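Q: Structure for this?
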Amino acid sequence: AQTVTQSQPEMSVQEAETVTLSCTYDTSESNYYLFWYKQPPSRQMILVIRQEAYKQQNATENRFSVNFQKAAKSFSLKISDSQLGDTAMYFCAFSGGGGADGLTFGKGTHLIIQP
Amino acid sequence: GAVVSQHPSRVICKSGTSVKIECRSLDFQATTMFWYRQFPKKSLMLMATSNEGSKATYEQGVEKDKFLINHASLTLSTLTVTSAHPEDSSFYICSARDSQGKSGVEQYFGPGTRLTVT
């Protein structure tokens, strides 16, 4: 079974700063996907970014980028130029079976962007 | 695109009754849907995988006779909580995988259903 660990329960930064959320995982699979999801107070889960394990290049989506270290089983999320709307719970998630399996989530990091 | 709806958004039921939650993919076909449970201030936990036309696969520790899942069409999966008890009170979230989408692996989430059992 796989596990996902997020060691930062809460983080707070000033608007426009850059923040990095950490995530480590453990798996014996070789074909998997990693995701970061955002859950605002509305509780709607929103996909932020995804990374395929076979791709060495780190994924980027506008202000969001990841640092994927496969050997270290690390998958951190960097948010640049943080905005007030980025305030939310952020969950790191793993999907095995080439991405076909259900998601295993970390415990989440509550990110607060201060004005 | 890739919208998933859930109904109802909130439900209150009495202990011992059953409640059904619907999950629909509105603009794509989903051969696979997933059901998650989220306790207050906690993470999501996968309960089961729902495949169209076949039996659901339940995660370890999830009672299949208590949480009945039916995936009768490519756009609809239902979760029925049978003989509900207060400890079943939780936030239930479904997701649908768009196998024809950009990556074929992304799961799109419904807005969730808050179940309160009194």
